[in-house]
Amino acid sequence: MKLKQLSLFLENRPGQLRGPCETLGKAGIDLLTMTLADTAQFGILRFIVADPERAKKALEAEGMVVSTTEVVPIQVDNRPGGLAAVLASIEEAGLGVEYMYDFAARVTPDKAVIIFRFEDPDRALAALKSAGVRILTSEELLGE
Amino acid sequence: MSTWNDPPGGFHPVSMPDYLPRKQLAAIQLQRLQSVVTRAFVRVPLFRSRMEERKLTPASIGSLSDIAKLPFTVKADLRDTYPFGLFASPMEEIVRLHASSGTTGKPIVVAYTQADLDVWTEVMVRSFAACGLHRGDVIQNAYGYGLFTGGLGAHYGAEALGATVIPISGGNTERQLMVMADFGVTALCCTPSYFLHLLESAKEMRIDFSRLRVGVFGAEPWSDSMRDRIQQESGIRAHDIYGLSEIIGPGVGVECSHQHGLHVFEDHFYPEIIDPETGDVLPDGAEGELVLTTLSKQAMPMIRYRTRDVTSIMAEPCECGRTLRRIRRIGRRSDDMFIIRGVNVFPSQVETALLRVEGTLPHYHIVLTREKGLDQMEVKVEVTPEVFSDEIRKLEALQHQLEASIENILGLRVKVTLVQPRSLARSEGKAKRVTDQRNV
Question: Where a domain ends, among B315, B333, B351?
C-alpha cells in the first residue's frame, strides 16, 4: 500500500518547527512519524498523519506550503541485519531510493517499519511484492 | 434615458482633448505655458529669482521649445520652502492641501484652488474612461484617503465619471474582499502590490470576484511581466496609472485599452525627457528622466519638475486614436536605484528576472549588506505551492535558476534565499522592496 506523506517548507531559523506542530496540535491531529531534511538555508519537514487531507487544510489555512508525496511503508525484522535484507531486495529490483526514515510508532515489538520514498512508487510496489517484501497497509499502520 | 457614456463603448465628452489634432494641442500648450510661467514669475519668489539669474522674463517664452531655457524645479525646492513657499495663490483661494509622507524629515505640501481640483477631476475622468470604465461601473477605491493624493483624486474622478464609488480606502484585506464580492465591484483602484496581496487572500478565503473587470493600479513602479502575471491569474485588465503629488496626484498619465505606454494629458502636463547628468533635453524615444511642467495649475505651478522617474516618450500615434503622446511604463525611479559593486540596480529588474522563472510570484525583498568590505545582495523569494517540491535537490535547482535569471539581467552574482510563504511583509500602499543594511 502506498501511503500519503505530507511535506512542509521551513526556513532554517529558530522557531520554524513550532508553528506547524502547534497548528496540528490545535486541530487534534497526531503526528505518527516525522523527519526533517535540512540544508544550510531551508528544511523540509516530512511527516505522516492518519488524516493527511485535514492536516493539509489546517496547515494551508495558516498560509503554509504543503505537498503530498506517496511513500511505501515496509516491514523490517527488528534484529541486526534486518534492514540490510530488505535493502538487498530493493537493490536486486533495481529501484532508486530518494530517502527513507523510521516509522516511529511501532506496530509490533519484533518488527520495525521503514518509510521509503522511491523514484517510481508504483513500480517499487510491484517489484517488492513479488520479491516477498512485506508492505504494510495503511490500516495496519494507522490503526484504523 | 441613454446618456453619452452609457456602456458599451461610451465616450465621455470630457475626453475630447485626448483626440485634439497635434497642431491645435501645441497652440493650447504654448498659450498655457506662457500664462503659467508669468504666474510663477510674478507670484513665486524662488522661481522669479532663478529666472532673473538667467536673464529671463516671461516674454522669453516665444515657442514651446523655449521651455528648455527655464530652470528646473526639484524635490528639495519643495522641502526648502516648506510649507507654503511655492504657493502662487493666497490662502483665500486655496481650497485643499495634501502632503506626501516624507521619508526624511518634513513632508512636501501641495495646494489646490477650486480650478486645480476641477482639472484634477477632469484628468481622472479621462483616465478612468481610457481604462474602459463608465457609468454603471462599481469602483472600489482602495487608495488611502487622507493627505495622500491617491484616495481623493481617484474618488472625485470616479464620481464625476458617473460610476458608483466605494470609498473603502486602504487596508483591512478581509473587508476589501467581502465588499468586492458582495457589492459586485467591477473596478478596483490600488497599488499593484496590494492587488497581489488581495488576490492571494481571495484564493485562500475562496472569494469570488468574477465581476471585477478592471484594475487601475499605480503609485509604485511595476513591470510588464508583473502585469502579465496579474492579468493571467485574475482575468482582469490591469491598467497602469501615473501621477505624483507635486504635479497634481494620480491622473498625469494612463494606459488606454492597448496597454502600450501611458498617454500623458499633455494639455495640462507638458512632458520632457532629459539626460539626468547634463540636464539636456533628449529627443522622443530616448530614455532619460521625466520632467513635467503643469500648464494649468494655479495654486502651485511646477515648472520643469524633475520627477526622478526614468522613461522615454513614444511619439508615434496610438491605435486607440488618442493624439496624446505616451510615456513608456515607468519601471524605474532614480530614487529606487541602488548601486551594488558598481552596478546600478533597479528593483524592477529583479522582479522581471524572478518572473521569468515559472511559478514564482513576485513576492520578494532585497537585502543589501556589506561583508568584509564587499557589498552583498540577497533576494528573499517566497516559496509558492506551485514551486514547492518534497525533494531538496529540486528546491536547490529552483534557487539556482532564480540566481541565474538575476545574474543574466544584472550581470551580478546574488544570493537567492527561499523563504516561507507570507513571511515577507505585505504593504497596503507602496511596497518596500529594498532594505539597505550597509553602513555607507
Answer: B333
Do residue A65 and residue B390 have CB atoms under 8 angstroms apart?
no
Average pLDDT over chain B reads 91
Residue B48 lies in a domain: no
Of A9, A37, A61, the CB nearest to B388: A9
How distant, in Å, are the alpha carbons of B252, B270, B300, B417 from that of B124?
8, 17, 19, 41
In this structure, the answer to whether residues B184 and B287 fall within a common structural domain is: yes
Chosen domain end from B333, B348, B374:
B333
Same domain assignment for residues B308 and B329:
yes
Q: How far apart are the C-alpha atoms of B272 and B250, rounded to whole Å? A: 18
pLDDT band for position B2 (cuts 50, 70, 90) = very low
Q: Which residue in B384, B389, B418 is closest to A41 by CB distance?
A: B418
Res. B104 pLDDT band, cuts 50 70 90? low
For chain A, the structural domain boundaries read 3-69, 70-142
Strand partners, B343: B340
Q: What is the pLDDT of residue B361?
A: 67
Q: Which residues from chain A sit within 8 angstroms of residue B204, using beta carbons?
A: 60-61, 63
pLDDT over 50 at B309, yes or no:
yes
Kindly report the backbone phi and psi dihedral angles of residue A77, in degrees, each rounded to the nearest multiple of 5, phi listed first. Answer: -65, 135
In which band, very low, low, confident or very high, does the pLDDT at B14 lie, cut at 50, 70 and 90?
A: very high
Q: Which among B6, B320, B265 is positioned nearest to B121, based on CA atoms?
A: B265
Min Cα–Cα distance to chain B from A37, Å: 8
Q: Which triple of cell numbers denotes residue B29?
A: 500648450
Q: What is the pLDDT of residue B337?
A: 80
Closest residue in chain A to residue B386, using alpha carbons only: A65
Q: Is domain A70-142 annotated with CATH 3.30.70.260?
A: yes
Please state the CATH superfamily assignment of the domain spanning residues A3-69 in this structure.
VC0802-like (3.30.2130.10)
Q: What is d(CA A8, CA A54) in angstroms, rounded to the nearest whole number? A: 14
In a domain, residue B2? The reply is no
Shortest CA distance from A20: residue in chain B: B420
Q: How high does pLDDT run on average in chain A?
A: 89
**Per-residue pLDDT tens over the stretch A25-48:** 999 999 989 999 888 889 999 999
Q: Does B106 lie in the same domain as B247?
A: yes
Task: Identify the CATH number of the domain in which residue B396 sits.
Answer: 3.30.300.30
Q: State which amino acid sits at residue A82.
A: G
Q: Which of A9, A37, A69 sits opposite B420 (nearest CB)?
A: A9
Segments forming the whole domain that contains residue B404: 338-436
- Pair B166, B234 in one domain: yes
Residues B414 and B309 reside in one and the same domain: no
- Per the structure, how many domains does chain B have? 2
pTM: 0.77
* C-alpha distances out from residue B293 to A90, B24, B306, Å: 76, 19, 9
What pLDDT sits at residue B426? Answer: 79
Chain B residues with CB inside 8 Å of A119's CB? none
Least confident of A85-89, B87-91, B109-113: A85-89
The cell for B11 is 465616450
| Residue B298 scores a pLDDT above 90 | yes
End-to-end CA distance of chain B: 65
Contact yes or no for B385 and A67 at CB 8 A: yes
**CATH number of the domain residue B231 falls in:** 3.40.50.12780
Gap from A108 CA to chain B (nearest CA, Å): 29
